[in-house]
Amino acid sequence: MLPVRRQRKKGRVEIIPMIDVMLFLLVFFIMITLQMITDKGLKLQLPSSSEAKVLPHPHFVLNILKDGVVEVKGKKMDLQALTGFLATDGDVTHTQVTIAADKLVPFKDFVHVMDACQKAGVTAIGIATKAT
Prior knowledge:
The protein is of the alpha/beta class.
């Protein structure tokens, strides 16, 4: 009697787990790349300070121009639009803002921008200066 030969099962390449891993890697690299994109800055004459410290990378840099106009990510906004923009940023308690005002900007404009940030619920506000 001849031994019964079982038919060998062929190996299968499961593609579904491989697709899952590839999508995970794609999302991971997209999230890392978004963190590496920097904001464009304006050429402002910032006031200088001997006690200036490096701040963590903020979510938003608010540029106050000489005429009092606020610019965020290349868009010019009034104070109401700024408050609405910051309030729609998800969890505003974790939103970090740095205000960069030209040294010729009146202090009242600077205070109005800070007030608009606080109305939106932002509590982490930094002030940009040049180190001397």
